[in-house]
Amino acid sequence: MLKVGEPAIDFTLDATNGRKVSLSEFRGQNVVLFFYPKDNTPGCTMEACEFRDKHAAFAELDTVVLGISRDSIESHEKFIKKHDLPFLLLSDPDGTVCTAYDVLKEKNMFGKKSIGIVRSTFVIDREGKLAKVDYKVKVAGHVEEVLNFVREQLK
């Protein structure tokens, strides 16, 4: 598991803006990087919509929000359109970045085991270091907690 104070692992992934995006592009800004299991599922939709609703507040704090799942860009684009999401979603279909950030774990649903993303959020400071690391995030109240952290710790 990654720890606060460590450098954030750089990556380059396809994004919903039609190009490849690297984490290092955002050096000099704070970044909220949230990993979520699947587009258009109840918990993921709630989380994404809460980030949408607080997007202006994050922007005022010079903070970029990026979402990552293993869904395709096409799926991400539909998710964005359906819920009017104002931030980029990045596609990690082979799970390389998910593995690097240690968010892929075995899940057991109705007796069926699979490997999936454990909802996790990383706040990265302007210098590219991990300022907050949250694994196994519960959706309710999480976005507000992240916003308060950025507001209080990374002004």
From TrEMBL:
It comes from the Bacteria. Coiled coil: none annotated. The lineage of its organism: Bacteria, Bacillati, Bacillota, Bacilli, Bacillales. The keyword Membrane does not apply. Residues 2-155 form the Thioredoxin domain. This is thioredoxin-dependent peroxiredoxin. Keywords: Antioxidant, Disulfide bond, Oxidoreductase, Peroxidase, Redox-active center. It comes from Laceyella sediminis. The keyword Oxidoreductase applies. It catalyses: a hydroperoxide + [thioredoxin]-dithiol = an alcohol + [thioredoxin]-disulfide + H2O. Pfam families: AhpC-TSA. It is an enzyme of class 1 (oxidoreductase). Monomer. Thiol-specific peroxidase that catalyzes the reduction of hydrogen peroxide and organic hydroperoxides to water and alcohols, respectively. Plays a role in cell protection against oxidative stress by detoxifying peroxides and as sensor of hydrogen peroxide-mediated signaling events. Belongs to the peroxiredoxin family. BCP/PrxQ subfamily. Its EC number is 1.11.1.24.
